[in-house]
Amino acid sequence: MFYINYNVLKNLADAFSRFFKKQNDRPKFKSRKNPIQSYTSQCNYPKQGKPTIEVTGNKIKLPKLGWIKFAKSREVEGRILVATIWQNRSGKYFVSILCEMNVCPYIPVPKDKGVGVDLGLKDFIILSDGKKENAPKFFRKYEKQLAKA
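RE: above sequence
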């Protein structure tokens, strides 16, 4: 069976497009002797059955590796798209999981409540609603105490 890793093809296309835009050196493949090794695996969601990358508890299921225990720093929320596994120079392995979320936890500020800020020379801060703030004068406030000290 012939398997195509689309991430490899995407990375190769990006490398060649950067090469032709900037006329730098041609793309180079990673050496096996490089101390930092990594690979990327894309999660496939079949119509029936389970996805190829899953996280349950403190275990992660990766294609070609199976279930592996790992130290989870935060909960995985949303649909898993890509997992990148790499080894650092000390020999420890790390996994980075890219997820797709339907709900954005950040609420944008309405335009009527937004304020523009301008730092000026004459006045310290001028806000877009017309308010002016004077510069804080810490030196003048503590000048006598500094002279005494």
